[in-house]
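Weekly sync, protein design subgroup
Attendees: M.S., D.O., the rotation student, P.L. (late)

Item 1: inverse folding check
M.S. brought a backbone from last month's batch and wanted to see whether the design step gives back something sensible before we order anything. D.O. pointed out we never logged the input encoding, so this time it goes straight into the notes. Structure tokens as presented (275 positions):
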């Protein structure tokens, strides 16, 4: 199926590894020109080189912290200068990681009792402000084209808080992103712009593997025990691949997906408690 993405211009935040990198690759394969962004220039450049080999001249990298609206605007300006008006924006910024020196330890670990107010503010910056800033920066280009696709890579906890894990921050803030996106979709419904939020669950990324190691250490158990526990809670009884997330995003960005908007779409490996 031709998704009609040839010639479209995309910005993918958190695009240097994991799910974001797979999404950028999928959009490149569908013919889009893609700007990937993340904070660490070295890994970003490596990713841009690898993706650029798939499509010479259609991939660029811009280092930026996407929690800062000024930097987000600069990324979008650069994308427009290089490739033209932006039509696709994928926000994929991970939550604030609290344990200093344990980058990659996963969603902000802490309980209601242990978490100070400042950590809530940071989590809002990472999950909500970053998604807002990217949407805000690309809407003028999309309105001019009367076409646009905005996606956020969220989490299943937006619908079902993981009360068995010490993750009060994402449990609190992910639902806020879903609510903002629903409002944004309604605002943009006459502009040909769709806005959707993916509810992610247990995807095999390096960051997730590091998180399992951290959890095992925290619980005094083994990584095998930790992963067995997670697998048992997934109806399909397996973790997902980043490419499975990317395939859903590519479809949501397609010409064919124009009637899907304002949705929080679970890609979590099976059923949930809700219909
Ligand atoms: N993997 C899962 O099972 C799972 C489950 C539920 C939800 N999710 C969500 O899915 C998203 C992607 O997860 P992942 O496992 O692919 O994560 P990952 O491998 O850690 O990738 C995160 C990407 O985001 C970039 N990034 C982080 N903070 C940023 C910032 N402030 N500005 C710009 N870029 C930033 C990282 O690069 P730099 O560090 O260099 O900036 C990296 O490119 C996250 O929001 C995560 O919470 C994942």
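Designed sequence read out in the meeting:
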């Amino acid at each position: 199926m031709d998704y009609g993405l040839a010639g479209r211009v995309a910005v993918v935040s958190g695009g240097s590894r994991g799910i974001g990198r797979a999404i950028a690759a999928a959009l490149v394969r569908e013919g889009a020109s893609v700007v990937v962004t993340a904070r660490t220039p070295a890994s970003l450049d490596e990713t841009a080189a690898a993706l650029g080999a798939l499509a010479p001249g259609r991939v660029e990298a811009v280092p930026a912290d996407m929690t800062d609206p000024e930097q987000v605007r600069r990324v979008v300006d650069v994308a427009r200068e290089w490739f033209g008006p932006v039509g696709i924006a994928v926000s994929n910024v991970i939550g604030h990681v609290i344990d200093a020196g344990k980058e990659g330890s996963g969603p902000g670990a802490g309980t209601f009792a242990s978490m100070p107010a400042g950590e809530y503010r940071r989590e809002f910056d990472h999950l909500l402000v970053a998604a807002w800033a990217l949407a805000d920066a690309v809407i003028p280009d999309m309105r001019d084209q009367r076409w646009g696709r905005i996606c956020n890579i969220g989490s299943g906890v937006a619908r079902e808080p993981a009360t068995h894990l010490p993750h009060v921050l994402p449990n609190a803030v992910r639902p806020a992103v879903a609510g903002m996106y629903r409002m944004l979709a309604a605002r943009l419904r006459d502009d040909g712009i769709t806005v959707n939020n993916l509810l992610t669950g247990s995807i095999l990324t390096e960051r997730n593997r590091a998180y399992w190691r951290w959890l095992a250490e925290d619980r005094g158990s083994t990584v095998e025990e930790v992963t067995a526990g997670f697998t048992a809670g997934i109806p399909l009884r397996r973790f997902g691949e980043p490419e499975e997330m990317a395939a859903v995003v590519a479809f949501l960005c397609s010409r064919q997906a124009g009637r899907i908007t304002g949705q929080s779409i679970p890609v979590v490996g099976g059923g949930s408690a809700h219909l």
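Discussion: The longest strand covers residues 148-155. Strands lie at 9-13, 33-37, 59-61, 88-91, 148-155, 193-200, 263-267.
Action: P.L. to compare against the previous round before Friday.
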